[in-house]
Amino acid sequence: MHLQDGNSRAGAEPSAARIAMTGPLILASASPRRVELLRRLGLDFETRTSGVDETFLPGEAPADHCRRLARTKAETVARRHPHAWVMGADTIVVIGDEILGKPGSPPEAMDMLGKLSGREHRVFTGFSLCRHDRGLSLTGAVESSVCFKEIPADEMAWYVRSGEPFDKAGAYAVQGRGAFFIREIRGSYTNVVGLPLAEVVDTLKQAGVIVFAPEETP
Question: Per the domain annotation, does 217 fall within a domain?
Answer without folding.
Answer: no
